[in-house]
Design goal:
The protein is mainly alpha-helical. 64% of the residues lie in helices and 0% in strands. It has helices at residues 3-22, 30-37, 58-73, 78-89, 98-108, 116-124, 138-143, 148-159, 166-183, 187-197, 203-214, 226-239, 243-251, 257-272, 279-284, 288-302.
C-alpha cells in the first residue's frame, strides 16, 4: 500500500519488525552477537527471553495498547490507556522494564493512574528517563498528525504514565515530531530546525538531535537511556538508505537491541512505508495483521 496510509502502516510495522529482529540480541555486545549469530539479518528467535522467530516483546505490546486506546476512544484517555497497560501486565509478559513493572505493580495495588509513575520513582530512588515510553509513543504521532500542539502535549502526558522524569517525555515529543517530518518527506531538513527549537525547552534533547547527524559509529550507544535510544535511532535512519539497512545496522550493536530496534523501525517505517519492510520479515512477523489493523484505524482518524 502506497501513500500516507502506507506510511502509517510502515511506522507500526517497522516498529514491530525492529522489536522482533532485535529481541535475540538484547543484552549482548556487538562482539557477542558476531560470535553467536554472525550478522543478524533475519528473525531468528532465541535470546534471553527465548522468543520465537518473529515474536515481539513489550515495545510492540505497549504500542498496540496505546494505539487501540486512541483508535477506540478517538482521543487520549489516560485512564483507558493505563487500564490497557494493566491488562497486558496481568498476562505476565516476559519482557517488562523495571520502571514499567514498578509502575504497574503500584497501579494494580490501588495507586491512582496519575500518581503511579511518581510512586515508582520514589520506590526505585533513581531517575526514570529510560526508553520505555519512547518505544511505544509512535501512535500519538499518527493520531495527531495534523495537530502539532496536541501531539506535543499528549506525547509528554502519555510518557508520564510510566516515566516520571521529564526528559523521557521531551524525547517522546521530539521523536513524534521527527515521525511527522518523516511522513512528510522532510526528516533531514527538520532535524536541525527541531533541535534549534528545543534548545530552550531541553538542551539535552536538542544536543542529542544535533549529535545524531554527526556521530561516528563508536559514539552510538544502544542503551536504555532515552537520549541514547533517540540518538541511535535517528543516526541509523540518517546513515542508511533502507529500512532493512537501518534495522540491520542498529540491532547488531546489541545492548537494548529490541527496544532501540523498535524505535528505529518506527522512524524508518515513516520514511519508507509498508513496502519498505522486507516481505520475508512481514511473513515471519507474529501479529502483523493486528499491527496493520491498528495503523489503519489511526489513519482513518487522521484522515490519511
Amino acid at each position: 500500500m502506497s501513500g500516507l496510509r502506507g506510511r502509517f502502516r510502515g511506522v507500526l510495522l517497522g516498529l514491530a519488525a525492529g522489536d522482533a529482529l532485535g529481541a535475540p540480541a538484547e543484552f549482548l555486545s556487538a562482539e557477542q552477537i558476531a560470535e553467536r549469530y554472525g550478522v543478524i539479518t533475519e528473525m531468528i528467535g532465541g535470546g534471553c527471553h527465548e522468543v520465537e522467530p518473529g515474536e515481539t516483546t513489550d515495545a510492540t505490546d505497549m504500542m498496540l495498547c496505546l494505539a487501540d486506546s486512541l483508535a477506540e476512544t478517538g482521543d487520549f484517555d489516560p485512564q483507558d490507556v493505563m487500564e490497557r497497560y494493566r491488562a497486558w501486565f496481568e498476562t505476565a509478559p516476559r519482557d517488562v522494564s523495571l520502571t514499567v513493572r514498578t509502575v504497574m505493580l503500584s497501579y494494580r495495588a490501588g495507586t491512582p493512574w496519575d500518581l503511579a509513575s511518581r510512586r515508582a520513582f520514589e520506590i526505585l530512588g533513581q531517575p526514570t528517563a529510560g526508553n520505555g515510553s519512547l518505544m511505544r509513543c509512535a501512535p500519538v504521532a499518527l493520531r495527531y498528525l495534523h495537530d502539532p500542539d496536541e501531539r506535543r502535549m499528549v506525547s509528554q502526558r502519555e510518557s508520564t504514565l510510566t516515566h516520571f522524569d521529564r526528559l523521557a517525555g521531551m524525547a517522546c515529543l521530539a521523536f513524534n515530531d521527527l515521525l511527522v517530518a518523516a511522513l512528510q518527506d522532510r526528516l533531514r531538513d527538520e532535524v536541525p530546525r527541531l533541535a534549534e527549537r528545543l534548545v530552550d525547552e531541553d538542551s539535552r534533547v536538542s544536543a542529542a538531535l544535533f549529535d545524531a547527524l554527526l556521530a561516528e559509529p563508536e559514539e552510538i550507544e544502544c542503551s536504555a537511556f532515552v537520549l541514547d535510544s533517540l540518538k541511535a535511532a535517528l543516526w541509523a535512519v540518517a546513515r542508511t538508505d533502507s529500512l532493512e539497512g537501518a534495522l540491520s545496522l542498529i540491532v547488531n550493536k546489541g545492548n537494548d537491541a529490541d527496544t532501540v530496534g523498535a524505535i528505529t523501525g518506527a522512524l524508518a517505517g515513516a520514511v519508507y512505508g509498508e513496502e519498505g519492510v522486507p516481505a520475508r520479515w512481514r511473513s515471519a512477523l507474529r501479529g502483523a495483521d493486528r499491527v496493520l489493523a491498528a495503523a489503519d484505524r489511526l489513519a482513518d482518524l487522521a484522515g490519511a
